[in-house]
Design brief:
By secondary structure, the chain is an alpha+beta fold. The chain is 23% helix and 19% strand. The protein folds into two domains: 4-109, Alpha-Beta Barrel (N-terminal domain of MutM-like DNA repair proteins); 127-251, Helicase, Ruva Protein, domain 3, CATH 1.10.8.50. It has helices spanning 4-18, 127-134, 141-145, 156-166, 179-198, and strands at residues 23-28, 48-54, 57-62, 66-71, 76-80, 87-93, 96-102, 108-109, 238-239, 250-251. Strand 6 and strand 7 (96-102) form a beta hairpin. It binds a DNA duplex (16 and 16 nucleotides) through loops.
Length: 257
DNA sequence: ACGAGTACCTGGCAGC
DNA sequence: TGCTGCCAGGTACTCG
């Protein structure tokens, strides 16, 4: 389940490895993967100039101001070389092949970049912004943290961790958070994400996230709540009875108010 | 406009 | 042992 820290880790590897290489061809896998098979002919012959990240999206910028947008979905994985299971897409470059593997097929290649909220690690994502975005909303805070139009790049793992860190129950109506709580939440999100980026993201037991060089993340060892039965606080964790945004949610009934 | 719910998809695992 | 069925979740969709 790649979220911001995992995608950022992938971005760094790709930029290092692909920058300056010319795209020579591409190959689409089974058509069932694509809602509409993307036409990427215009990329052929251009050179990779940078790889940027926007939320959970990867954007490969090539010469001539063209771009290739990728989304890893929840099981998508990029790897060098054409070998591997569930190969959906291949990008051939000078002396390099980038393969997109995706068992669950939630990933996207060549899609448009949608409208997204601010990057959580940008300075414009601050308590004033969050207050403005949430003060009139009644949905659970966790659902809105995972809403990519409010803030980009946060999914179940990092929403869960951030809310624990900030001491806020995931079901709380977003608009009822106090200003100090919003400030705490912003701080928690930034702290959790920075730390996760530093550790190369999270590789959970079932969802085998690996970077394009096959390396796992190390943040899972530092997780406080997600996937645990006892929190970092030492208390037994609880799962919300009803899912939030269709997702199960773990929290500490003592530390989170 | 908002909030809730569901479809998409398949590997892995619990339970029988 | 082998089967069934449920769960995981990012995004896009529908419905009220």
């Amino acid at each position: 389940m790649p979220e911001l820290p995992e995608v950022e880790t992938v971005r760094r590897v790709l930029e290092e490895r692909l920058r300056g290489l010319r795209i020579t061809a591409y190959k689409l896998g089974q058509p069932t993967f694509y809602r509409r098979p993307p036409d990427l002919k215009h990329l052929i012959g251009s050179t990779v100039e940078f790889v940027r990240r926007r939320g959970k999206y990867l954007v490969v910028g090539v010469s001539g101001r063209r771009e290739l947008v990728l989304h890893l979905g929840m099981s998508g994985r990029l790897a060098f070389g054409a070998a591997g299971p569930h190969l959906r897409f291949q990008l051939m470059l000078q002396g390099e092949i980038l393969g997109f593997h995706d068992a669950r097929r939630f990933g996207r290649v060549g899609c448009p970049l949608p409208e997204l909220g601010p990057e959580p690690l940008d300075s414009c994502f601050d308590p004033a912004y969050l207050h403005k975005a949430l003060h009139d909303r009644k949905a659970p805070i966790k659902a809105l943290l995972m809403d990519q139009r409010i803030v980009a790049g946060i999914g179940n793992i990092y929403a869960t961790e951030s809310l624990f860190q900030a001491g806020i129950k995931p079901r709380r109506p977003a608009g009822r958070l106090s200003k100090p709580e919003m400030a705490r939440l912003v701080k928690a999100i930034k702290t959790v994400l920075r730390r996760a980026v530093k550790l190369g993201g999270s590789t959970l037991e079932d969802a085998a996230y690996l970077d394009p060089l096959g390396r796992p993340g190390r943040f899972q060892k530092r997780v406080s709540v997600y996937g645990r039965s006892v929190g970092a606080c030492g208390h037994a964790l609880k799962a919300t009875r009803k899912p939030i945004s269709g997702r199960t949610s773990l929290f500490c009934p003592i530390c989170q108010k």
